[in-house]
Fold:
Amino acid sequence: MSLSLLADLDTLLARIAERDPALQAFLPEEGRAERLHREAEALLARWPRPEERPPLFGVPVGIKDVYRVDGFPTGAGSRLPPEEFAGPEAEAVTLLRRAGALVLGKTVSTEFAYFAPGPTRNPRDPERTPGGSSSGSAAAVAAGLCPLALGTQTIGSTLRPAAYCGVVGFKPTFGRISTAGLVPLAPSFDHVGLFTPDVAGAALAASVLCADWEPDSVEWTPRLGIPEGAYLESASAAGLAGFRATCARLAAAGCEVVSIPAMPDFPAVAARHRQIVAAEAAQVHAGWFGRFGELYSLEMRELVERGRSISAAELDRALEGRAVLRRDLTWLMDHHGLDVWISPAAPGPAPLGLANTGDPVMNIPWTHAGLPAISLPAGESEGLPLGLQLAARWREDELLLAFAAEIESALS
Structure:
């Protein structure tokens, strides 16, 4: 077993050396190979008996550079001194290490997990964005550089890049995985996110990271709801055509797919979400922005300055909308007997160019309500991946992943 783990690690490192100079999913690290060999040998010494090894034994993991990781500087995709972000290791990272995972390295994040892009390219087309803000994590998994990577989602930073890169992205119920030890953007919406090649990998990682995880199983008779109206109309023509084709495939596979008018006030929901992000980002960055404002991108400066103009009373009113949206979406699910909502995970395929990371509009309702959501690869448009987004009730993460596994099988 020792030779297998070390040989697999060497194969992976060779692939990174070959592909990542062009892809730029990982931050540079001197001595990466030597460090990983030491850590792999330590794992083998600690757990010599295969039957006693933890669930993620030897699994190489990419960690988005907004998480603090012992032994690594944290830059949060910014130009600020890494010392500004020093502190205890993120709880999610510690849980992965305890489960036997190897930290492969830090992955590229957009600046402060917002919109100013990093250098990462889309593995499916290097002239297109991989999405953001978890750009490096999505690209690394899609390129086969690691089987698991951590991201975050405050608007659409896990599900959108998963869709653009053609991998699975999972965002659990808000608060189900601890965000302690990551550089925040808007604490009322910051979620830990996961990238994996398939649903089984996401379920395994979630079982390690989510408190009180209890695997669920389902019979293959899901009732899937399409939230018709202004929200769905936010998708592009290509994205909507791909989504309708996927719905037809699911219906042919035995799913019951029903259209439900939903979220007639979606423009107001989206505006409220962005208002909260701006106000909370201004609070988070008050000290840093005061001392390092000249090092901020235009996108972040505008966000912080807009957030400063939002009063405490306005923020409180906006925050109340989270529970209202969650209640309304859950009522519709109960009233129509839905198991899962389905929608496009992004407006369409990854847009051309690297100057922006695409529009997270399709992810807003599920992030705003804090509901568990997952993006599955689902067809293509002009040779580029599309993603199908599934969302379930509050804290029904296990059930969501069980349905996602069945839907993944139907779509494959």
Remarks:
- The beta strands are 60-64, 102-107, 148-153, 168-171, 191-196, 223-228, 256-261, 340-344, 373-381, 384-391.
- The first strand starts at residue 60 and ends at 64.
- Residues 312-336 form the longest helix (25 residues).
